[in-house]
Amino acid sequence: MQTLLAFVFVLGVLVFVHELGHFLAAKRVGIRVLKFQLGFNPTILSFRRGDTEYGIGALPLGGYVKMAGENPEEVERDERGNPIIHSDEFLSKTKWQRFQVLIMGPVMNLLLAVVLTAVVLYQGVERGSYEEQPVVVGVVTEGSVAAKADIQPGDRIVTVSGRGIDTWDQFLMAVGSKPNREISIGLLRNGLEQTRKVTPSVVGQNRFEFGDIGVLPTVHPHVGEISPGSAAERAGLKTEDVVLAVDGQPITFGYQLKQAISKHPEQQITLAILRQGEKLSIQATPAKQGSEGLLGIRIADDTVKNKPGFGQAITLAVQKNIEMARLIFQTLGGLFTRETSPKQLMGPIAIAQLSGESASLGWIALITLMASISLNLGLLNLMPVPVLDGGHIFIMALEGLARRDFSQAVKEKMLMAGFAVILMLMVTVIYNDLTRISWIERLMPWR
Length: 447
Prior knowledge:
Layout: H1 2-28, E1 33-49, E2 52-67, H2 95-122, E3 125-128, E4 139-140, H3 145-148, E5 156-160, E6 163-164, H4 168-176, E7 183-189, E8 192-198, E9 201-203, E10 210-212, E11 215-216, E12 222-226, H5 231-235, E13 242-246, E14 249-250, H6 254-262, E15 269-275, E16 278-284, E17 287-289, E18 292-294, E19 297-300, E20 303-306, H7 310-337, H8 348-361, H9 363-381, H10 389-402, H11 408-435, H12 438-441
Antiparallel strand pairs: 1-2, 3-20, 4-11, 5-6, 5-7, 7-8, 9-10, 12-19, 13-14, 13-15, 15-16, 17-18
Helix pairs in contact: 1-2, 1-8, 1-9, 2-7, 2-9, 2-10, 7-9, 8-9
């Protein structure tokens, strides 16, 4: 139930904001709006105010604003069959005015993405200390594609597929969007530029798969707290001890340390730690709890918390959304060049799953998800594909260049082509969504 409610809330807000943009712009230029509806037919609840009927549809997967004279087939005609265009109808307005009506839906989604991101940032964001640091390799996972390509600790990665990389955050996004696709890695070693060809391996196959080459930053978790009388206390561990390795295996993140401890109930392990700048080796024997090992420590990763002021939060939100928009365009472009896997796309089922999971984590996670989807919705609606807002704008632009309006037959052919593209996209994303559901995936042996 939580998943369903979260999905309806997320999609409802995004669709409402989108259609509100069209509605307000239409009112502003003097177009009579016949219907404003959230959700698709059948209409389950409606009321009328003035010339406009406001309704809620049974299928919460979209919405629409119906404007007078928008469809040439529905306009009033005289005795000879010629259309009678009234001054308050869509087609009576100039191309500039119609452009304003069409563009405001996506613009409202883009503005919403910025506002929601700013709200999240203003609350303060805690993130890994390494994320904004240069991509200097700290650990190369044994047997990984990076190890096979001779990428070594100390190498600084500066490009991925020819695009400059300044931070770990950018690097992880660039590599993560290209599972099973060969990419070039540009790096600096001892001041010399070198290039490696690698194919990121796939992680997370049953959900939202992404690529990984097996390199990790130079960070380590530390001991945040020790339970009295615990195995950690008996072993001599202290708070703020930095754990470098367990049994010779480098430890980068807290989850790795937790896994290493969990695997050795009542078995001695050797922890390489850093205490006030001095390297020490400590033997500890995790206690057994169920089938897992437990040292009795609270594990903390190295993080930084940024709490900007109101103005700075808005500036950072704009920058973040521009960066994400660039990544979205790269991903879409990669679909055509086969650099990006179609499995990166997700549809309504996946959005519903993510909405439920985000809602369970709290309102900050849910708002973050909404901001991301709103940005995607705004940008995708601007694509020059007939049926979408961007497609209608594209047709108007072509008419402007041709200095004449296209016939209805030509426009219908364009719309059918656009519909075919959207249909293929929907089939792809729904298939992806279904394969992410474990019991359905087992019924698909051809994958």
